[in-house]
């Protein structure tokens, strides 16, 4: 019983009725023009040739709206709000070729269906509903004389009881018919107004691009801020332990904490800058050059006593700018990265072989992040142990190897997002990576294809 009454009291029925009546409103100009032309053609001696030309022109104009992209957008909005159908917004740009024509034809067919269904609902409201109200009013004595001279099959104005019953049933039947037509429209709307296959593919590609960007930002935050927090925590702990016995070391550790915090703030500002919408009116900002001592083909080492040296004594500008002007780290920053690990007591030996400075920005940036995360994992899981970092570049491949002695349980290395983030970076560049124990050591080995800047 509840199922029979539900369409009569549901707000969905009446919202869908409004949607169908919009079709009747859109149909009205076509009906009026049809009646007007029918009347003109019925006049004897009318200029039929001119009327045919005008009729053809009006027909062409009348056929244009169903094929407009704006009409489809309006129909989608109406179907979404009144029919309760989940339809995505149409794309901003029109589809090219056959897919675009198919989409326009489906939208035009929906426009025609909307007009026809609206016309049927309009007729139902004008004829059966009005007649039903007249029958009910006559039977109840609310109105008189409304049925004079009217008969409906075996019923006439003297069968007031049956006419009254029919007057109650006809509006109910109209509501059921409207509910049925509205439900049919809700079923057909996704078919005729829904996205085409190319639009679905474009939407999936856009979603994949957004997910990729989110993952990239997550990796940037994890690698840069995570490394800074790890280094800061270990340096703070060392400074607290040696504050009274070795104040000079504690001072260097605090200075390193300050520098690490500033670098982390720069990285955080850069990542947040990626989330901001660019303002074309603003002039691009360019970061100043920084200097670091990584020589092409040279060797840079930092050992426990804090001494540092370069094989050729040369210096190189480090860092760079992304396309939006935000600074980013690259392999030229390796000296600064290794120096940040000094305050933790880690003995790091870094060897750079080959033309690292000629690497493209994406490869250099991802290589830097991989080494950074590798050093962070060493600090987290092995503590202050000797670490060997080797970076070798040639015309085809960038090779990165980071090794350290294994201490404690290897189970701890399975947690976190460090290795997973490194693998994601490697996969995105089409490289290969291995990480695991190797003869009493833990070794991370990465090979990245080199992209020559154009």
TrEMBL record:
GO molecular function, one term: ATP binding
Signal transduction histidine kinase subgroup 3 dimerisation and phosphoacceptor domain sequence ranges: 213-278
InterPro entries: HATPase_C_sf (IPR036890), Sensor_HK_TwoCompSys (IPR050482), Sig_transdc_His_kin_sub3_dim/P (IPR011712)
Enzyme's top EC category: transferase
Enzyme Commission code: 2.7.13.3
Record keyword Membrane present: yes
Keywords assigned by UniProt, alphabetized: ATP-binding, Kinase, Membrane, Nucleotide-binding, Phosphoprotein, Transferase, Transmembrane, Transmembrane helix, Two-component regulatory system
Transmembrane residue ranges: 20-42, 48-68, 108-135, 160-193
Signal sequence, renumbered to the chain: none
Any coiled-coil regions, as ranges: none
One GO cellular component term noted in the UniProt record for this chain: membrane
Catalytic activity: ATP + protein L-histidine = ADP + protein N-phospho-L-histidine
PANTHER family membership: NITRATE/NITRITE SENSOR PROTEIN NARX-RELATED (PTHR24421), NITRATE_NITRITE SENSOR PROTEIN NARQ (PTHR24421:SF10)
Protein name: histidine kinase
